[in-house]
Design goal:
Number of strands: 0
Helix content: 55-70%
Largest sheet: none
Low-confidence stretches: none
Number of helices: 16
Distance between the termini: 27 Å
Number of domains: 1
Radius of gyration: 21 Å
Mean pLDDT: 94
Strand content: under 5%
């Protein structure tokens, strides 16, 4: 399967992909505000479970909230075969395409520094160079683009597997001064050692790792690329759905199996985490594709589509502004009367402000792309 192959019209957007992107962003820009406040109101085992799933695992393991970031990278990967094929079909040269890739890489990296690296504080003592989801996307996108544009599907799978095995081998066998080899503790792992060594005072101070983990970020993007290539293939819709679900189950199983020796740790973006989260992403993509593009049930996904069409924009503005404060203009006066419902209403109001702005942009066909 090559990039130029496929029956999917390169000019036609997959509504399921826009909806899935919007579903992912929903949790970032408002879903966590809304559902995270249910437990304060109802205090039941179900709301307690929801509240727990909307918090990251402290170190090893997996919860729903740990899926949000890899799903973002996965979706970027799914879109790449479509966007690259479209550019090549309209006559863009490889040089022009690579120029676009490099420019996009730098824009995403700088936006990441703005969103989470305190770039706009103009204070070097606060600056973190590599610390954000958009920068993980930038790294994965750059590496994934090189793989996708230069190798056939067999080599793509081989190189992606090689990246995951290389990351595991380095983490397992390269000793860290003062800790030795194979340590997967927050302070004793190789990825953290390299971040502190290379970034110095510009390291973000968290237990998340970035530089060496870029190998694994690329793995997640490439898992998405394989989903995109599948959706562009000559297979029937039914076959595509079965392949997506089958790939999802297989990746989840492989991730759990590898996790016995190389645990599922989001902070490190371990290879087992790539496979396990990638499998869940495959299952979600298969579900959205089946319901929206195969069965044709689209109306329910429209609110997600509105968000998904301006995903980078809404991500950035919600990193820079707390829309709940804007929502308080309308509902803040009710705080004393709402009691335990105040957090939920405040979250709903903030999210509604964001969504209405995005809806207005959608109606005006105004989409911010990088």
């Amino acid at each position: 399967m090559k990039l130029a192959e496929g029956t999917q019209d390169v000019g036609k957007r997959l509504e399921s992909l826009d909806a899935l992107r919007g579903f992912d962003m929903f949790w970032i820009v408002g879903g966590s505000w809304i559902f995270g406040n249910l437990h304060a109101i109802f205090d039941s085992p179900i709301t307690r479970l929801i509240d727990r799933q909307l918090q990251h695992v402290p170190w090893e393991g997996f919860r729903f909230w740990d899926l949000i970031m890899p799903l973002f990278l996965f979706i970027v990967g799914v879109a790449m075969p479509f966007s690259f094929a479209k550019r090549l079909a309209r006559g863009d040269s490889r040089k022009k395409l690579y120029t676009h890739i490099i420019i996009r890489f730098f824009i995403l990296f700088v936006l990441g520094m703005i969103a989470q690296g305190h770039l706009l504080s103009y204070d070097l003592s606060k600056l973190a160079i590599y610390c954000n989801t958009l920068q993980a996307i930038a790294a994965g996108y750059l590496i994934g683009s090189i793989i996708l544009l230069n190798l056939n599907i067999k080599w793509q799978i081989g190189v992606t597997s090689g990246l995951l095995f290389l990351f595991w081998a380095l983490m397992a066998w390269v000793p860290v001064p003062g800790y030795g080899a194979g340590q997967l503790t927050p302070e004793g792992n190789l990825a953290m050692y390299l971040d502190k060594l290379l970034l110095g005072s510009f390291q973000d101070g968290t237990t998340y790792t970035w530089i060496l983990s870029s190998l694994a970020f690329a793995g997640t993007v490439m898992v998405g690329v394989f989903g995109g290539l599948l959706l562009r293939s000559e297979k029937t819709q039914k076959q595509k759905v079965l392949w997506l679900f089958g790939a999802g189950v297989l990746c989840v199983m492989l991730g759990l199996l590898w996790g016995i020796w190389f645990p599922i740790i989001k902070h490190l973006w371990t290879s087992s985490f790539v496979l396990f989260s990638g499998g869940l992403c495959f299952l979600l993509l298969g579900l959205f594709y089946l319901i929206i593009d195969v069965w044709g049930f689209r109306k329910w996904a429209f609110p997600f589509k509105v968000i998904g069409m301006n995903a980078i924009l809404v991500y950035m503005v919600t990193r820079l502004f707390d829309f709940r404060r804007i929502g308080d203009i309308f509902v803040g006066g009710l705080a004393d009367r709402l009691g335990s419902w105040n957090g939920l209403i405040q979250g709903l109001a903030g999210f509604l402000v964001i969504w209405l702005i995005l809806y207005w942009m959608y109606r005006k066909q105004t989409f911010v792309k990088i």
